[in-house]
Amino acid sequence: GAASKGEYRHFMLKEIHEQPTVIAAALEGRLGDRNVLVESFGPEAETLFAGVRQIHLVACGTSYHAGLVARYWLERYAGVPVQVEVASEYRYRRVVVPEGTLFVTLSQSGETADTLAALRFARDRDYLGSLAICNVPGSSLVRESDLTLMTRAGPEIGVASTKAFTTQLTALMLLTLALGRLRGQDPDEQAGLVEALRGLPGLVRRVLSLDPAIEALSTAFGEKHHALFLGRGAHFPIALEGALKLKEISYIHAEAYPAGELKHGPLALVDSEMPVISVAPNDELLDKLKSNLQEVRARGGELFVFADAEVGLAEEEGVHVLRLPHVHEALAPILYTLPLQLLSYHVAVLKGTDVDQPRNLAKSVTVE
Ligand code: G6P
Questions:
Q1: Whose CA is nearest to atom 4 of ligand 1?
Q2: How far apart are CA 85 and CA 151, in angstroms?
Q3: 220 phi and psi, to 5 degrees?
Q4: What's this model's pTM, rounded to 2 decimal places?
């Protein structure tokens, strides 16, 4: 029957809470004991992947943000150079295709006009082959690609994408490990990541239980007109996605910056009217991020920090800290997406917007 909201007030909230289940579904049958099963990408995947020397990754909207995260993973764990581009730009470029390039599209719907046009454009170029990571079986993108990996998020009704994004990230980590395996990734590193993936649905569930605390934080945004999201490394795209969610459903103007760029412009905007949201997992960039946050505080900006429980960031006047369970550093971008989804959701509810159907936006953009 028709999708139902069940006990939830909005589809978006229901879909946020489905994430432990759909991430587990995205992993189902695709993990071996100590590695990812390359055949998850189809019987031809192993041969095709063996020839991959670089990747062009093309998508729109939230799917593009997933691609930006994957670049960090593919470089670090599979040693593959990656270009990521929005489809509407890619399709009109005189793109140069080096030998051994795999063309990857990411799309929830599989029907986004620009992404589909980019695939059709790529088919006439000298690519090694194409892979679609998609949520809709039988969609145009799936039908027209050489290889496919379904994200298994189930129907997503809320226009602002949530579970489709985190399952795309999960699928992209599988791609990273599949390529890593064929490119000499340290087997222990791969085994560690596979184990971490198995624990991911449980961690996601724990983060969802922080919802009341996130709802409490959201009240600070009711009267705000702007917000700045900061992240470093693979969390820069997570900051971009956080800003997109806030814009889409609460209509608050939000920007995201890599925290290291703060001094090159956005710091000029920081005052007591500019809330600054940051994700601070426990990684090698933490100390640098901390000093960026001090600069914001010194200008009176109110800080909202989502931080690893082990990081030791103190709650103080103007600094709100929400602690997340410790997670394998590679999977932190997936986990840290959740509080940003919930924050936007609660701000939108507070502002009384049409959360599932934000003004002027469509679930799927099938015309250029
Ligand atoms: C629209 C939707 C977004 C989505 C984007 C790309 O803008 O509102 O949520 O991220 O299209 O859609 P796709 O189906 O290709 O992932």
A1: 61
A2: 20
A3: -70, -15
A4: 0.97
